[in-house]
Design a protein that fits this description.
The chain is an alpha/beta fold. 48% of the residues lie in helices and 12% in strands.
Length: 279
Amino acid sequence: MSSLTIGEIKKLLRSSAGPEPEVLAALEQDPRQGAQALLASYRTKELRLREERARLHLLYNYERQLAANGYSSICGVDEAGRGPLAGPMVVAGVILPPEAFLPGLNDSKKLSSAAREKLYEKILRQALAVQVAVVSVATIDRLNIYQAAKQGFKQVIERLDPRPAAAITDAMPLDFADIKVLSLIHGDALSASVAAASIIAKVTRDRLMLDLDKLYPLYGFAKHKGYGSKEHMEALARFGPCPQHRRSFEPVRSMYVGPAEFKEDVLYSPLAGQYRTDF
């Protein structure tokens, strides 16, 4: 091992196949400080990887239980944007391969924007199916936020291809004649499939709010994504609501002036490359 340069050892440790146990044992006897530093770094990364695999294994617990009971195709469904004062709500459904390895996968609210963007791309690469529903402000105001979310959940599940045999939702009980539904409170922190759906929904909605920020630059949608931040409330008080504010939500309901801007709901499949922003 001492015949190898530090650069060659680094390349060996980073190889996709990984070093053989004999190589690691020989590296332990290498007296060079650089070699020992590389070995320590390698073992730290391996430990973190094992811990992450163990964490993800637990996150697939509900999927394994459903699979053990004969449900072969399982989707996770979650929404983003139930609470904001402005902008659509987005519901996403994801079918992952069994035990798909997605390091960092978690409830989207626990992740940074950069981490969500990276996982979004990884989920699209590995997922068997992804379906997204953009639930318009008009639908939210017409049905109320809970019923609008429920409708979006149903639309997403019904449009998934392949059709799931079971669905895990984030606190949304649903009835289907041919689909088993498991509704979990904090499902995005308990189920890998729901966590994946939460990331797809959150990233999609954030991107839509960036588009809305260009259309309505007075409100700061790019920063607060439509939530009732101090900046947003000050803009509402100064400029009044725009057509993408939810008239059924206070304080918008008390201050809304003018007709609603009607927009239909949008369904699309990111995996098929069918992106829609004309919501």
